[in-house]
Design goal:
By secondary structure, the chain is of the alpha+beta class. It has three domains: 9-159, Beta-Lactamase, CATH 3.30.450; 194-279; 287-422, Heat Shock Protein 90 (2-Layer Sandwich), CATH 3.30.565.10. It has helices at 9-60, 128-162, 165-176, 193-243, 245-279, 291-308, 327-344, 393-403, and strands spanning 72-77, 88-96, 101-114, 117-126, 287-290, 313-316, 322-325, 351-355, 359-365, 407-413, 416-422. The strands form three sheets. It has a five-stranded mixed β-sheet. It has a four-stranded antiparallel β-sheet with strand order 1-4-3-2. α1 packs antiparallel against α2 (128-162) and α5 (245-279) packs parallel to α8 (393-403). It is rod-shaped, with a radius of gyration of 47 Å. It starts with 8 loop residues before the first helix and ends with a strand.
């Protein structure tokens, strides 16, 4: 489905208003033009009638044709015309010698009888002033619309800074809101009813989220804590069983499975609780950390295990590699990635740890995985037909990287598994 283009509310309102205003101006122009046409017709008719009556009075006074106006032509007819015919109106262009230009005139032609004589009267009236007025009316509306449109756009742009300032503040609070800090949200002062209602609904929503979060957090922490007591008891009892040589000769595999699964459950509860805290961004003590010393500390911690597996560790650490991250989360990343390399590494080649100014890579030799690189970071991903899963280690690393703007990737080549983390420090 095609994503609709986003338009600001004020811009959309302004657009609709401009379209409406344009239609209103256009219809007004059409209406005024029609009114102007009717006005011209009525005014000319009034002037034609006035001139016609004036000519007839002159004829009755015996002043024909000496005192006729210049825009009137009067002819005496020898034959009786059709007196029932309506007056004939027509527009014509006549050259004005004084102005040296063609002028538009309206002509009225009538025939009438006066004192048993028949006459043909032609009257001319100029249309220039009338049509100039009509064109000025229509022409003035278009510039007026553009002036109004520019004024509306400028006014709305000014309003967007002041009128919508509370709205933008509320949006900023929504954008930066993190679960667990609901009590720190401040109210935005606004006299706009809609903004007040939106802010009220937002605060109510935050309260519900915070309430559900506290309940979930309390439940998760309680469960993780309560699980440790029975698991500790089971682990201690299992260790007692391991100390019994006669029992171990008969049930060593069973006891070992119980012991391993108990440890696994204990670690699982702690890790799930840790993931919940990370996702809720409770670890926000991010600082700039030069990683060389931290990596060397973790390499020292795994060196004994690596020697037991006959694995060589090679390091190439840069002083310039720096991460902006919570120190506790950095320890989790290094601990999981390095222990993963030791656990799955083979004697075909060394474990390599390399850092540059903007990247950290850890590689180890070993056969290819049965899991695709896209599924490698999924929690508890289990391939069809198998009981073993990927667990939480790499998923935890992925989550920490995402929340700290780090990019982690995996690739396999030349019999090596390579994990790379791109730094977020510019």
């Amino acid at each position: 489905m095609k994503k609709l283009r986003s338009i600001k509310l004020l811009s959309k309102t302004t657009l609709f208003y401009l379209v409406f205003t344009f239609l209103a101006f256009f219809l007004s122009a059409v209406y005024l033009t029609q009114e102007a046409e009717e006005f011209i017709h009525d005014e000319l008719q009034h002037r034609f009638n006035y001139t016609e009556k004036k000519v007839m009075r002159q004829i009755r006074a015996g002043n024909y044709p000496e005192k006729l106006p210049s825009n009137v032509l009067l002819f005496q007819l020898e034959k009786k015309p059709d007196l029932t015919a309506d007056p004939v109106y027509s527009d014509t262009l006549v050259y004005n010698s004084e102005l040296e230009e063609m002028q538009l005139l309206r002509k009225k032609t009538i025939v009438f009888e006066e004192e048993s004589k028949y006459y043909k009267l032609i009257i001319y009236k100029s249309l220039e002033d009338f049509y100039r007025l009509k064109n000025d009316i229509f022409g003035a509306l278009i510039p007026a619309f553009f002036i109004l449109a520019i004024a509306i756009v400028l006014f709305n742009s000014l309003l967007s800074g002041s009128l919508f300032k509370p709205f933008n503040k509320i949006l900023s609070q929504m954008r930066t809101y993190k679960v667990g800090i609901g009590a720190g949200i401040k109210s935005v002062n606004t006299s706009t009813t809609e903004f007040r209602k939106m802010q009220q609904l937002y605060h109510e929503m935050v309260e519900r989220i915070e309430h559900e979060y506290r309940n979930l957090k309390e439940y998760t922490e309680n469960m993780a804590h309560e699980m440790q007591t029975p698991l500790t008891v089971i682990r201690n009892k299992t260790e007692n069983l391991i100390a019994d040589e006669d029992l171990m000769q008969k049930h060593s595999s069973t006891v070992k499975i119980i012991y391993d699964e108990t440890n696994h459950l204990s670690k699982l509860g702690n890790t799930l609780n840790l993931i919940t805290k990370i996702e809720n961004q409770e670890f926000n003590n991010a600082v700039r950390i030069p990683t060389r010393a931290v990596i060397e500390k973790h390499l020292e911690a795994i060196s004994e295990v690596a020697k037991l597996k006959s694995l060589e560790i090679k390091k190439e650490l840069s002083q310039e590699h720096i991460l902006f991250i919570d120190p506790f989360l950095l320890d989790i990343i290094l601990k999981n990635v390095l222990r993963n390399a030791v656990r799955y590494g083979s004697e075909d080649g060394p474990i390599k740890i390399k850092t540059t100014a903007d990247s950290l890579s850890v590689s180890n030799f070993g056969p290819p995985l049965d899991v695709s690189s896209e599924r490698l970071f999924e929690r508890f991903y289990r391939k069809n037909g198998t009981r073993a899963s990927q667990g939480l280690g790499l998923s935890l690393v992925k989550k920490i990287c995402e929340l700290n703007n780090l990019k982690i990737s995996y690739e396999y080549g030349n019999n090596q598994h390579i994990f790379t983390i791109i730094s977020n420090v510019e």
